[in-house]
Amino acid sequence: KAGVTQTPRYLIKTRGQQVTLSCSPISGHRSVSWYQQTPGQGLQFLFEYFSETQRNKGNFPGRFSGRQFSNSRSEMNVSTLELGDSALYLCASSSAVSTNEKLFFGSGTQLSVL
Amino acid sequence: AQRVTQPEKLLSVFKGAPVELKCNYSYSGSPELFWYVQYSRQRLQLLLRHISRESIKGFTADLNKGETSFHLKKPFAQEEDSAMYYCALSYAGNNRKLIWGLGTSLAVNP
User: Fold this and answer.
1) Shortest Cα–Cα distance, B76 to chain A (Å)
2) Least enclosed by CB within 10 Å: which of A112, B40, B91, B97?
3) Which residues, in sequence order, are CB contacts of B104 under 8 Å at separation 6+?
């Protein structure tokens, strides 16, 4: 099986712009979660989608949004970018059969906001 | 608020020595705890979860509710164990909203 695929691998944006990141989960996985990783804050949960519905949400401002398509692919959007949004954004998928389901991570998208 | 603490940012041991990576959590109920590992240039991946009570690559971790800890242990470290290790917490009603520690970088020296 192909692993979780995130595109693009790297992004450079300027303040005020918006950005869309993409995540293709492992075939058959219906749950997609997004995380922000920074050196100071570590891994922080953004949100989780399951069957096109947001099932769980972290403590991020409304500028961070996402969606999931019928094929389970997910996108994350950040509007009005701020310097502090510079981070590695990780996507993880799982089959979501049980609550302690194993997460499979992508390689991430490294976002730099200038 | 629920929190996961990994007190050591960096842990350095010699090959063959025992290793213990500490993880403490704050949650009063029944948690689900995980250890994830990231080897150099590889993706973050699950190492083990407490509910499985398994040993993976020689590593074990026991949930101690009294001490609210989930330390990762291996009796004889190998050079290939060098990696970044993350402890994570989930709990009923929180589903996939994993709460992560900041990670411990383990260096196993020859």
Assistant:
1) 26
2) B40
3) B6, B8, B9, B10, B11, B21, B22, B84, B85
Mean pLDDT confidence for A52-61: 91
Closest CA to B88 of A4, A103, A107: A103
A62 touches chain B (CB under 8 A): no
Q: Which of B46, B35, B25, B32 is nearest to B94 (CA)?
A: B32
Which tens digit of pLDDT belongs to each residue from B8-24?
Answer: 999 999 999 999 999 99
Whether the Cβ atoms of residue B4 and residue B12 lie closer than 8 Å to each other: no
Domain assignment of residue B40, given as a range: 3-109
User: Residue B29's domain is classified under what CATH number?
Assistant: 2.60.40.10
Number of domains in chain B: 1
Name the average pLDDT for chain A. Answer: 93
> Is residue A14 predicted with pLDDT exceeding 90?
yes
Give the rounded distance of the alpha carbon of B59 from its chain centre: 9
The residue in chain A having the minimum alpha-carbon distance to the alpha carbon of residue B52 is A100
